[in-house]
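Listing S7. Sequence submitted for prediction.
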Amino acid sequence: MKHLISALCSVIIAVLPAIAQVSDTVVVIKKPHRIVITERGDSGMCLEVAGAGNNKDFHYRYSTEYDNTMPDSIDDDFNIPFFSTISAKKHSKISVDWFTSLGMHYGFVNMSGAGDISDMASSAEIGVLNPISMAVVFPHRWRITTGLGFGWKGYRLNSSSQFVIDDAGLMTLAPYDKNSYDRLSRLKIFYLDIPIMVKKTMGDFSVCAGGVVNFNVYGSVLTRYRIDNALYKTCSQGINQQKVTIDFMAVVQLYDIGIYLKYSPCNVLKKGNLPEFRSMSIGFGIGF
């Protein structure tokens, strides 16, 4: 943009209808016949005028170097304070940005492949995707981001069955006592994650997609129900969750507010545990 502005300014100076006069840095030419502007990459430009007024043999040549101290980027993005400290700058070269983000995402989680035993409306995911991140920024508002985040997923069953740890230490399902009520059985997994996302920004709108590596560091099961007004509650830790899983993630974002979809092709629990299911979630977030 700065090069174009320099070129336009030179043309305006050349074509001003005034009497020719010369100073130290400016030549004003009356009625030029032909103007040629040549750019020399990022280093400078040359302006040539052929013919002026009634003098077809007139020739003038002017060259200049660009001032490379001008900024290479213009920050014109909207960001919600405290949620994102990185902006989609118009970089003309590849660069690396380090940034922090306090943005959060919340979604509903489904136990894909487990049939109709899950209660998606009561199953949730909460996380922070990029509190510490790095971005490789390319021209035309493309970037690749990675970092370190964390969150948890809670999978809740409907009232027909409950999570149980058997005598062998394996997860399985069992029915409730037929006289029970106020039933709740849920599995919770806390994870650290490393997202690797490709993002394209188009004005205030952006889309990104990529993979998220999850390190599932903690898991627990809680089951609670009542029989004859008596509360029965069991809580178990060490539920044989897969230690590492991968999510595929896509985000559509306007300003710093977006919606996301995540799907994992990996089973949440290790082989031999029931139910066998994969994680799928959809939700919204601020400051992806």
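Caption to Listing S7: primary sequence and predicted structure tokens for the chain studied. The two ends are 29 Å apart (CA to CA). The longest helix spans residues 2-15.
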